[in-house]
Design a protein that fits this description.
Helix content: 25-40%
Number of strands: 20
Length: about 525
């Protein structure tokens, strides 16, 4: 597993092929990285909060007490527009009351008969929970104010085949503040782009098992831009939520859920099956909580109850291994007997941090590492951090598959090495607790993205002096385990360092300690 050098551009990172893919290069037909499931949430800026709604009512000559008189015509407008669209496209409005009803299964059955040509496919109606606005009258003053609470209202689900986005749905509530939800799939979008470019492909569900040009397909997937996405979302909102025309500032679109997938398509299903069986069996027994944090470039927070776990679950035709840290997860599984898929998912994109401009309350601006904004204009930054997490995970998986190569490199780790001045630096003794603690320290999650310095490393090494830590860093650099970031005094763990340190720790935990614990104790000689 290789840490992301903060000074290294993404193009350089992608040129470094993960070792696991290099090892199985002849068995791989192609690979593709793109967004999969994406759910976008829309807020009407003019009425998104009780305060904004109160100001809008005052500007239009109304009072908070007029909320129902103001909102009811908008409710009727959505209902009448839904009925009109159903008649124009010859579809029915299906009211759903069952809790275990799956909209996707019903739509899949309709598409088999209807075909996949563009247009409205089906409309569902369901009463569901939502954030709604109401009025509240103060007993003391008699004033009426607007409040926001969790309530229920009728929602319409419009399933359609969009000319550019493919199969999407638009979820429209019938009461203020009309928080629209739109689902789309990056593989559906890519399929439409491949059609327009006349690139042949074979697709099953949301996965490609063959593409005539994998490189051109990857370039199209990377061209997914937020400005174009914004235009498509506004178009869908105007069609299925007509009250938007009354509010000049329109919708603010933000990510609600996002999935980024890395598909590796194998030529032989048996090769992929053997690889998956090896990786899943070893990974579930060797992964630790701090390693899960390292995949995301994060450390485990102290004094905070953050969910970090791993589980091996059953899919329809295979197993899947999943790791969770708070709202974000990593998983890998197989699809259609040929696709090895790694996936990064999140329900809160602000979980990730990146280097961006931050505007403070006093109006000042500065560039710093901060939580990612939820706006759809964070699309490119989200793609970069998710891809970096998948790459770290893929590098770590690569250390699990072959023990023989790891053992050879462990031997090199124990040998003395000379620096540029021909000074000898001794190797590392894996039986010493101090050196295992050093490996664990440099592999901590908070160092994966930004590296570390002498000052940040000292508290993790039992209070050693700056000079002692400097000599340890020099020793690690001579053995090729660390690399300096530019002309700074920060360091990051190299690809070789990640591989050797992880192999050394795993050798100690899974072989040395269990073997010694199971060995019979001998009585001392008389």
């Amino acid at each position: 597993m290789e840490s992301t050098n903060p000074t290294e551009p993404l193009s350089e990172l992608l040129r470094k092929k993960p070792e696991l893919l290099t090892r199985y290069g002849d068995a791989i037909e192609g690979q593709l990285r793109c967004f999969d499931r994406v759910i976008v949430h829309g807020l009407l800026v003019d009425v998104c909060t009780p305060g904004a709604l109160a100001n809008y009512l005052l500007r239009s000559g109304r009072r908070p007490a007029d909320l129902e008189a103001f909102a009811l015509p908008l409710n009727n407008q959505i209902r009448d527009n839904t009925i009109l669209l159903a008649r124009q496209h010859g579809v029915k409005i299906e009211y759903v009351q069952r809790k275990n009803f799956r909209f996707e299964d019903r739509v899949a059955g309709i598409l088999k008969e209807r075909g996949a040509h563009p247009g409205l496919v089906h409309i569902f109606s369901a009463k569901e929970r939502a954030t709604v606005f109401e009025t509240r009258k103060s007993k003391q003053t008699g004033h009426v104010t607007l409040i926001q609470r969790s309530g229920c209202c009728v929602h319409y689900y419009f399933y359609l085949i969009h000319e550019q986005l493919g199969l999407v749905y638009v979820r429209v509530p019938t009461w203020l503040p009309f928080r629209v939800q739109i689902y789309l799939n990056g593989h559906e979008l890519l399929a439409r782009q491949l059609d327009r470019q006349n690139i042949a492909y074979e697709k099953i569900d949301n996965a490609f098992i063959h593409i005539a040009s994998w490189a051109r397909a990857q370039a199209l997937a990377d061209s997914f831009e937020p400005k174009q996405l914004h235009r498509w979302l506004d178009e869908l909102a105007r069609t299925y939520c007509p009250p938007i025309e009354q509010f000049p500032r329109g919708y603010h679109w933000s990510f609600m859920q996002a999935e980024y997938a890395w598909d590796v398509v194998f030529k032989d299903p048996a090769t992929m099956a053997n690889l998956f069986e090896t990786l899943s069996r070893e990974a579930i027994h060797t992964v630790r909580a701090d390693e899960v944090g390292r995949f995301f470039g994060k450390r485990l927070p102290h004094g905070h109850d953050t969910r970090v776990d791993s589980d091996l679950g059953r899919r329809v035709d295979s197993f899947r291994l999943r790791h969770h840290m708070g709202p974000t997860g990593l998983k890998f599984y197989t699809k259609h007997h040929r696709i090895f898929r790694l996936e990064c998912t999140t329900n809160d994109v602000s979980f990730f941090q990146h280097y961006r401009e931050v505007v403070h309350n006093n109006g000042t601006r500065e560039m710093k590492v901060a939580a990612m904004k939820k706006s759809i204009y964070s699309l490119e930054a989200l793609r970069v951090v998710m891809l970096a997490a998948l790459r770290r995970y893929l590098e770590w998986l690569g250390t699990l598959s072959e023990h023989s190569s790891a053992q050879n490199e462990l031997n090199r780790l124990g040998e003395s090495q000379k620096d540029a001045h021909q000074r000898s630096h001794r190797g590392f003794n894996l039986l010493r607790e101090q050196e295992r603690s050093l490996f664990i320290a440099i592999l901590r999650g908070e160092f994966a993205a930004g590296g570390f310095s002498n000052r940040r490393l000292r508290p993790l090494l039992g209070g050693r002096s700056p000079g002692q830590v400097s000599r340890l860093i020099k020793r690690l650099r001579v053995h090729g385990l660390l690399k300096r970031v530019g002309r700074t005094y920060r360091y990051y763990v190299t690809k070789l360092g990640q591989k050797l340190c992880m192999a050394a720790l795993r050798l100690h935990e899974t072989i040395t300690v269990p073997t010694l614990s199971a060995a019979p104790t001998c009585a001392p000689a008389p």
